[in-house]
Amino acid sequence: MLDLEKYPALLTTAEVAEATGLSVRRIRTMIASGELPYRNAGRAILVPKSVMSEVFEPTLAGAKLARAATSDASS
Protein backbone atom coordinates (compact mmCIF):
# COMPACT_ATOMS: atom_id res chain seq x y z
CA MET A 1 0.00 0.00 0.00
CA LEU A 2 1.28 3.44 -0.89
CA ASP A 3 1.83 5.91 1.94
CA LEU A 4 1.01 9.22 0.29
CA GLU A 5 0.18 11.36 3.31
CA LYS A 6 3.44 13.33 3.19
CA TYR A 7 2.97 14.28 -0.46
CA PRO A 8 1.04 17.26 -1.90
CA ALA A 9 -2.16 16.89 -3.94
CA LEU A 10 -0.12 17.10 -7.16
CA LEU A 11 3.18 15.21 -7.30
CA THR A 12 6.18 15.73 -9.54
CA THR A 13 7.55 12.79 -11.49
CA ALA A 14 10.39 12.56 -8.95
CA GLU A 15 7.91 12.38 -6.06
CA VAL A 16 5.88 9.71 -7.85
CA ALA A 17 9.07 7.71 -8.41
CA GLU A 18 10.03 8.06 -4.75
CA ALA A 19 6.58 7.02 -3.53
CA THR A 20 6.34 3.98 -5.79
CA GLY A 21 9.95 2.83 -5.93
CA LEU A 22 9.92 3.07 -9.72
CA SER A 23 12.35 5.12 -11.77
CA VAL A 24 11.57 8.62 -13.03
CA ARG A 25 12.06 7.27 -16.54
CA ARG A 26 9.38 4.59 -15.96
CA ILE A 27 6.98 7.25 -14.60
CA ARG A 28 7.56 9.42 -17.68
CA THR A 29 6.99 6.39 -19.94
CA MET A 30 3.69 5.69 -18.16
CA ILE A 31 2.64 9.32 -18.65
CA ALA A 32 3.59 9.27 -22.35
CA SER A 33 1.66 6.04 -22.95
CA GLY A 34 -1.46 7.33 -21.18
CA GLU A 35 -1.23 4.84 -18.30
CA LEU A 36 -0.78 7.63 -15.78
CA PRO A 37 -2.98 10.74 -15.84
CA TYR A 38 -1.19 14.05 -15.37
CA ARG A 39 -1.59 17.81 -15.50
CA ASN A 40 0.71 20.48 -16.85
CA ALA A 41 1.59 23.46 -14.71
CA GLY A 42 3.77 25.53 -16.95
CA ARG A 43 6.63 23.21 -17.86
CA ALA A 44 6.06 20.94 -14.87
CA ILE A 45 4.34 17.58 -15.23
CA LEU A 46 2.24 16.86 -12.15
CA VAL A 47 0.39 13.69 -11.20
CA PRO A 48 -2.74 13.95 -9.03
CA LYS A 49 -2.37 12.06 -5.77
CA SER A 50 -5.97 10.92 -6.17
CA VAL A 51 -5.05 8.57 -9.07
CA MET A 52 -1.95 7.07 -7.48
CA SER A 53 -3.58 4.16 -5.64
CA GLU A 54 -5.74 3.00 -8.52
CA VAL A 55 -2.83 3.10 -10.98
CA PHE A 56 -0.01 1.78 -8.81
CA GLU A 57 -1.52 -0.65 -6.30
CA PRO A 58 -2.07 -3.36 -8.98
CA THR A 59 1.32 -2.65 -10.60
CA LEU A 60 3.26 -2.82 -7.35
CA ALA A 61 1.37 -5.91 -6.15
CA GLY A 62 2.21 -7.69 -9.41
CA ALA A 63 5.87 -6.74 -9.10
CA LYS A 64 6.02 -8.13 -5.56
CA LEU A 65 4.47 -11.41 -6.71
CA ALA A 66 6.92 -11.67 -9.61
CA ARG A 67 9.90 -11.08 -7.30
CA ALA A 68 8.60 -13.68 -4.84
CA ALA A 69 8.13 -16.25 -7.62
CA THR A 70 11.64 -15.58 -8.92
CA SER A 71 13.23 -15.93 -5.50
CA ASP A 72 11.25 -19.14 -4.82
CA ALA A 73 12.35 -20.63 -8.14
CA SER A 74 16.00 -19.91 -7.44
CA SER A 75 15.91 -21.57 -4.02
Automatic annotation (TrEMBL):
One Pfam family this sequence matches: HTH_17
Native source species: Actinomycetospora aeridis
NCBIfam families on file: excise
Listed name of the protein: Helix-turn-helix domain-containing protein
Residue span(s) of domain Helix-turn-helix: 10-54
Superkingdom assignment: Bacteria
Signal sequence range: none
